[in-house]
């Protein structure tokens, strides 16, 4: 008996920058079915597997055999399908995984802590305007605000408090939260995501940071993009680990100050767009370039005074985002653009100006 897939009649076009889960929800809405039947009709599972449930990291990686089946049922190309998963960012803003095996990829992505495969942040105003299409970049650690609407992204439902746009177990809905509360069988959160009002972001410095981050993410394979974003993440982790020694939060929105001072060591900034903004404010203080040229603004010079080091001169990379000096017994914090970065066996370290030339570095 033939096992060839039947071509679906109603298939939505992918929205620019959309995540795979969002496109499946659009497919479900167009065919007036729920998310799980849409996955089955599009043949994301092998034939005969009526008990199929997608991995919670479904948005991160789609195996080639699954993409081939979905291509036959929907007419979407392999490139279009890959572009809607986090694999789109590999060898760009995300480094190369150690293996193509999905389980290895999932574990590797979890260790990186650079993306949210199981949930998404969101801008309700964007969802209203585009008809409920969720952007893939909202799942990346560097997305904390919507520049267009000058507001923070939401990371959790304002009703039930659960993370937004999870793969399963929920019925899947781009408009309503619809997540189950297992204490009350049959209950699904009825809160409209479109009507949620995220806090406004008034700090123009942070809006400019997010604009430049969006530019880098939207062109993930542009030269230097991965280096800039990964270095920023290392700087945020440096602030988290050395919270007591980090510089004071500069003048910014009152909401950001409340979160920064009200959460002790702010360990979980990655799950909170407001705290993410606070950490980025500290990391980029004095590190923005005033050039209006778009190419210059996404260049490393946008983030420090040092610019790109020349590959032929062997000049070490500049200290773009600041950090605690790692020289032994040195309590100093090197601001962006000052001091230097030294690569040791277990990672890059920041040295203040006083120790740039002669300080011993742990692990070197």
Would you give an account of this structure?
The protein is mainly α and 364 residues long. Helix content is 30%, strand content 5%. The protein has helices at 20-30, 35-41, 64-74, 78-83, 102-112, 124-130, 204-218, 225-241, 254-262, 273-283, 294-297; strands at residues 145-146, 151-152, 323-324, 333-334, 340-344, 347-351. The strands form 3 sheets. Strands 1-2 form a two-stranded antiparallel ribbon. Strands 3-4 form a two-stranded antiparallel ribbon. Strands 5-6 form a two-stranded antiparallel sheet. A hairpin with a 2-residue loop joins β5 (340-344) and β6. It is globular. The model is unreliable at 290-302, 304-315 and 359-364 (pLDDT under 50).
Short account of what is shown:
The protein is mainly alpha-helical. The protein is about 30% helix and about 5% strand. The chain is globular.
Question: Features of this protein?
Answer:
364 residues; mainly alpha; 11 helices; 6 strands; 5% strand; globular; disordered C terminus
* Cα separation of the termini: 63 Å
The best one-word shape is globular
Q: What is the tally of beta strands?
A: 6
Query: What's the alpha carbon Rg, rounded to whole Å?
Result: 22 Å
The proportion of residues in beta strands is under 5%
Mean pLDDT value: 80
Strand order of the largest sheet: 1-2
Q: Count of helical segments?
A: 11
Task: Give the % helix.
Answer: 25-40%
Largest sheet geometry = 2 strands, antiparallel
